[in-house]
Amino acid sequence: MQMTKSACLGALLMALATPAFAADAEPIPLGVVQVLSGPQSKYGANANKGIELAAEEINKAGGINGRPVKLFTEDTAGSKDQAINAVRKVIGQNKVVLVIGPTLSTEVFAATPIANQRGVPSIALTATAPGIASIGDYSFRASLPEERLIPASLKRAKKLYDIKRAAILFANDDSNMKSSADIFKKEAAANGIEIVAVEAFSSKDSDFSAQLTKFAGLNVDAVLVGAYPDAGASILTQARRLGLSKVRFIGGNGFNSPKIIELAGPAAEGTMVSGPWSIAKDDDANKKFIAAYQAKYGEVPDQFGAQGYDGMNIVAQALKDAGGKMDSDSIRNALQKVDFKGVMGPFRFDQNREAALSDGVVTFEVANGTFKIVQ
Amino acid sequence: MLAQQLLNGLVLGTIYCLFSIGFNLIFGVLHVINLVYGVYFAMGAYVALVLATTFGLPFIAVVPAVVCVVGLIAALIDWAVLTPLKGREGRYLASLIITMGAALFLYSLLGHAFGVEARRFPVDFGPSALYRFGGVSITGVQIAILAIAPLVIGVLAYFLKFSRWGIAIRAAADNERASLIVGINPMLITLGVSFLAAALSATAGMLIGLNFNAVQPYMGEFMMLRGFAIVIIGGLGSLPGAAIAGLALGIMEILTSAYGSSLYREVLTFALLLLTLWIFPNGLVKQINARRP
Q1: Staple partner for B204: which of A319, B18, B55, B129, CB 3.0–4.6 Å?
Q2: CA–CA gap between residue A99 and residue A111 (Å, rounded)
Q3: Any idea what DSSP says for residue A370?
């Protein structure tokens, strides 16, 4: 009895909180496929928080052409197989018109071809490995690939600190990090930086002493790292202990998280990274987003939260532009033409369904425990 | 360079050694493959973290507290998980499956309780000083590892060899039925072995968490892979085997990264595992020490 009562009350509250949609306003079903459990859940869960925040705002503001959006969220647990099943499920059972996700590049390569085959547009918000948008005509990618971020870091590092010799260290069991390493190699050559060693580790390693000791012996000016924040922070702390105190660490996309500072503490000082978004960008849209995110979740957003938030809004904009038409090709064409300005800056897709603009790219250096934007 | 790398290898090997001895102790005495064992590794690190951050205990108090707390939790969990298997047919396979389920459950539980992101110890916790001897740098934590691990292993060896309880445990390992006949309580043996093994695992987890300054729920899973390789190379059930193989593997992994390439670090470990299985199925070290019938 008590349960029924509180359920009724809950329903009532929800009804009051959301604007009254017309009785025949059928929700627009959208699939959200993200890593929500397991060791990699931090990326997907934060992206999902951004997505849910944006969807809530969209529905509160009256939905899309009078129809609310309804999210069908599935967890991939970071596994390719589960990502495939999740995409099949949202398309087959929930009849979604578009899939947002999956989170990791490896999952996208496995699961997105299925959405593409069935002609359901999909949009990857966080995956950064090359080749994702070329999966098919219906697969879009909103995140800036690392090929666009790493050059900014290297150019600025070279200019500011005269880097001549560098070593690469990356997680060789993660396709994202492997591609970071390849891009580092290519862009270092383009910027006149000599790569004197390439070393690897496995994502779950916590011991980097052998690789770092080797770098110390090679007198490198910089270490270019492809690692997620947890491994990255261990690398930084161990490096300082092994006497690589003057070596500059430059990270790929994985380093663009406040976690790296939180975990590595003083050892993170001087670390450089470029990213599509910064908590320090002080335009109104960004400030509003950070405040709303904090109010809803009680924590500050990271890059993944911002990507989720912008991604959901890009989708909403495209659906709005498509008018009432919810067939695959109308949505696809609307996405292709979308013109949007979000918390990460102006956004549109290029002919290859990749993010067209990199105006928003910022390079940071850790100074006094925070990311400071460097020019 | 070589000296520094050898030190890196020695530290890693010592941790492997601690971890594998406990794993083998469970296998040798209880005749089960306990996958929950990796959870105690992570648990050791988390208990240390909580004691250090929430209660502000100093390192010297945290070490014995971790040993006791995780040991007791482990005794309880293992009792609940493994008791139903007593005296059943096909204990190996059943233990593998039931402990796999329990381990997955406990890892997720840890993830929910502490978050899946890596956590770190307070900056001033533990021996944080850095010493330099020529070109070799050694941290206080590394010194602590090199001091604590042999101490723990020594105490365990003494306990198993000379104490009444230790002899009872070895008797149960040698012949379970005969140990029942002479009145050794199998329940107490299970609890005791779980406690001892988990204490080793937790100590290893705490020390590695402190050394590499990252504590994650899934750190035990990675360690279990290494643990499996080590106990097979060293010989299932053989404690000296686990100790020697653990130490050797740690040093070899580091030297492979240092003078070969870190790309082949795991290749080497698992190639060695395969070779051992093909050529000395009883384990490399056990083979050398084999008693004649």
Answers
A1: B18
A2: 11
A3: E
Confidence at residue A144, expressed as pLDDT on a 0 to 100 scale:
86
CA dist A304 and A308 (Å) reads: 6
Contact A217/B217, CB-based, under 8 Å? no
B208 vs A: CB within 8 A: yes
- Give the single-character DSSP code of B90: S
Rounded to an integer, what distance in angstroms lies between the CA atom of residue B272 and that of residue A230? 29
Residues of B in contact with A199 (CB under 8 A): 257, 261-263
Q: Using the beta-carbon criterion (under 8 Å), do B258 and A214 form an inter-chain contact?
A: yes
Q: Which of B1, B5, B7, B8 to mutate to test the interface with A (most CBs of A within 10 A)?
A: B8
Nearest alpha-carbon partner for B242 in B194, B285, B272:
B285
**Torsions phi, psi of B94, nearest 5?**
-60, -40
Distance from chain centroid for Cα A224: 20
Which stretches of chain B are DSSP H helices?
2-30, 37-53, 59-82, 91-114, 140-162, 164-174, 176-181, 186-211, 219-234, 239-259, 265-279, 284-288
What is the rounded distance in angstroms from the CA atom of residue B198 to the CA atom of residue B203? Answer: 8
Q: What is the mean pLDDT of each run of 10 residues along chain A (375 residues)?
A: 48 48 80 90 92 95 92 94 95 95 92 94 90 90 87 90 93 85 92 92 83 90 92 89 88 84 88 86 90 94 92 95 90 94 91 84 89 85
The answer to whether A191 contacts chain B (CB < 8 Å) is no
Chain B within 8 Å of A204 (Cβ-Cβ)? yes
Helix (H, G, I), strand (E, B) or coil at A360: coil
Does A211 contact B219 at a Cβ distance shorter than 8 Å?
no
Question: Which residue of B lies nearest to A209 if distances are taken between CA atoms?
Answer: B8
Strands A248-251, A222-226: parallel, antiparallel or unpaired by DSSP? parallel
Distance CA A325, CA A316 (A): 13
Task: Single out the residue of A278, A304, A301 nearest to residue A360, CA to CA.
Answer: A278
Q: Pull the structure tokens for residue A3.
A: 């349960």
Contact status of B114 with chain A (Cβ, < 8 Å): no
